[in-house]
């Protein structure tokens, strides 16, 4: 798919089986964002890409795990590698550790993304530095499924400083917060491992949120917005 | 079933760094990882407490530290860390937790539902074994790793812990009491054996006759070969059940100089164990050393034997002989050595007859000697007709001093606190001992209590043993009737707390080279030893060893057997660590002490040590309860 196609938003022609699955996903009821934390399933996500350029780099892998009832359900976790036609650079491979062969042997991107959507359902998403994950997933969905992926996202990079303002200046990265809560990471820069670390951070956020009379996703989204505003003005 | 993803694999891998998960089958580990939930608890949050009702989950700590507080007793006393599981007892029993578990840092736990916990018990025998036997399993594994560590040097050596049933293979050769001597000797000759067992009713042993008895009982007295065996045999033979261990047979032989021990179950003969059958033990040297000691005619021979005893201790550790047996064997051989030293010194002193009894105090008195032991001994004597107490003492003191110095030469250093027979304070007549003990019991000041804790573990070693027995009986009649004294002993014992830490696993002390170490004797074994002493003095149990004291006192105090055995497992585990520490110090040419750095222990041993200190707290809790301290 070239630049022109992308500019003119030409529709992708999907295999009928795939488009049927996409329709089924679209038809699922949306999550109620004002339900109590304990009543909702959340999906914490992290992606690996060919680089950090939001416009040009491509999605390589998605890792995700579900948080339900305030706990990470280990078996309800997900990881997938998208097949790459062009292998990413050596420097890039050294970061996420998904080698050339694994990239070539990944799953056909449309199938991979549909499996992710199946895993996700309509559960609200949580990530750290959402802009990056969101942009990458959105672009890939558009490119391979010809579909505009609109979904609720929550960014812990703004929620955490909102909950613990005393550390807002000092802690920026996922590693900063992980160190603070002594969250270990079984394989940093592997999508699923980073998703688990982010999920653990989310677990830490929940009781702090309750202390501030926040009990649902929407409350945290409001907190995120306020924090973005503080960062913007502050 | 799809292949497990990297998260499940990483979780299984993480768990496999800790017991019991490290020895579980991989499929069971994956099964477990797939069913776990990961939960978070903020600092000071309560994970589980009795108020939560029936326990619904197994908790495995992923990261952070959890403090355990037993309800009602007050005060935290245990800390759990990464890889540790709880509450096993409550889950197995399907009941509420006894303790309150509180996060003392941010804590993440893997959690498994109670139903799945039960399913895992069914699936994995390793897991089941761990949960139900817990400390016993840990101990066994620690012991196996010890054996593996020394395996290279001792692989071919037969285990001292083999049951006699596996050693006594031959059917015993027997004769009847009325069998004529000639016929018995023919049988011995035909079967090429060294001893024959005399039995009644087919298999009830009544005596033994060995070829070594030939010279003294047949040839020299020119006994008629028609004499019935009943008249030449050694009557009332000593026997052991077939479930007894090889080391017990070796101990009997060493203690009494026997060359044969009968194996009998319920009074029925099933086998004979000879020195030869314990070939591997001979190489280890229990019987060899004891024979050398028995026949020693000078101090030099005994000094060498003392070195052999220490070497033997090392070899037996290598075989993984349990601390209970090891300390008993060491003490038995040290007893023999001491006895021989006394005999040699007495034979050089014609005017001092055996109107005294040599007493062992402290660890020697309890048969719990380690590799590094100084002297703790004394004398009890009768005053010969026509002499004063002072005259009798004056006659014995030079002898006692020679014995003390000879023991020093054998590697039992003179006691710094001068608790030795050469000290006139501890070379006393029966009445003087009674007066001294009475004073301590009545005074109850710190020094008296300290003395009681050393001297009340006395045991006769050689001489007029009835003197010691009389003193023992008198002491028990006095202590059992003196609750005030027992209360003071209990309070004194409770001053010394097991070093379980709140911030780290253990509280370490020491300075300089000994920084970050803890004293296994003072803080580890002493709580058990002290408690056992109080229980024994209270219930009139005459034994001096910590194990026989606890086992003897428990029924009278309504302490369940399982509880006592858990205490003793812990006690002997700490003893084992002491022995290992001393052994390694000896190998490194350093002075032996009782300190270890817990960080240098492997994970498994560190956990058992923690559990052992926990048991020490339990013993103390019991003491506190009984004496309302």
Topology of this protein?
The complex is a heterodimer of chains A (234) and B (629).
Chain A: H1 3-8, H2 16-27, E1 41-49, E2 59-68, E3 71-81, H3 90-96, H4 100-104, H5 109-120, E4 125-127, H6 130-145, E5 153-155, H7 156-163, H8 174-180, H9 191-211, H10 217-233
Parallel strand pairs in A: 1-4, 4-5
Antiparallel strand pairs in A: 1-2, 2-3
Helix pairs in contact in A: 2-5, 5-6, 7-9, 7-10
Chain B: H1 6-15, H2 26-33, E1 37-41, E2 46-48, E3 57-63, E4 66-70, E5 76-80, E6 85-86, H3 88-93, E7 99-103, E8 107-113, H4 114-123, H5 125-133, H6 135-154, E9 174-175, H7 181-191, E10 195-200, E11 204-210, H8 213-219, E12 234-235, E13 239-240, H9 246-256, E14 260-265, E15 268-274, H10 279-284, H11 286-295, H12 299-318, H13 323-347, E16 356-360, H14 362-365, E17 377-381, H15 389-409, E18 427-429, H16 430-443, H17 446-455, E19 459-463, H18 465-480, H19 483-493, E20 518-519, H20 520-539, H21 546-557, H22 561-587, E21 595-596, H23 603-627
Parallel strand pairs in B: 9-10, 13-14, 17-18
Antiparallel strand pairs in B: 1-8, 2-7, 3-6, 3-8, 4-5, 4-7, 10-11, 11-12, 14-15, 16-17, 16-19, 20-21
Helix pairs in contact in B: 1-2, 4-5, 6-23, 9-11, 9-13, 11-12, 11-13, 12-13, 13-15, 16-17, 16-18, 19-20, 19-23, 20-21, 20-22, 20-23, 21-22, 22-23
Using brief descriptors, characterize the structure shown:
heterodimer; A: 234 residues; alpha/beta; Nucleotidyltransferase, domain 5; globular; B: 629 residues; alpha+beta; Jelly Rolls; CBS-domain; Beta Polymerase, domain 2; four-stranded antiparallel β-sheet; 15% strand
- The number of helical elements of chain A comes to 10
Number of DSSP-assigned strands of chain B: 21
Fraction of residues in β-strands of chain A: 15-25%
Our estimate of the beta-strand percent of chain B is: 5-15%
Task: Write the CATH homologous superfamily of the largest domain in chain B.
Answer: Beta Polymerase, domain 2
